[in-house]
Amino acid sequence: MELLMMGVVLLMVGMVLLMVGMVFLMVGMVFLIMKMVLLMVGMVFLMVGMVFLMVGMVFLMMRMVFLMVRMVFLMVGMVFLMVGMELLMMGVELLMVGMVFLMVFLMMGMVFLMMGMVLLMVGMVFLMMRMVFLMMRMVFLIVGMVFLMVGMVFLGF
Asked: Where are the membrane-spanning stretches (predicted)?
């Protein structure tokens, strides 16, 4: 009878322990489910972070492309600037050469102009001398005519 009672007690103790173990198992299952949920949340955050990282990489690459385009435009602008400077320098040199030619031709023209003026003045002097000789001839002619008329008058008397 005592052994039976002891067996019942042990059975009850075993049942209690089994129930306690079941409770611990259920608590462990709850913790496992919570752990799984947290793992899934962590995975979601990780995926979102990866997406943001990829978007950031794309923007970074776009920025690099824009930088390269800007560099290309800068280099092209520099080339055009240098070509323009060279052409400007060539124009200035040609202008200087042209100025020299202009000065030479101007000086030659002035010399020829002055020579022409001198010759014109000499010609004018000769013309005036001719006019003077003509006037003198006219004076002599008039005086001769007067003497002739006076002589004719005296002859008439």
From this structure: 7-31, 37-60, 67-88, 94-127, 134-155
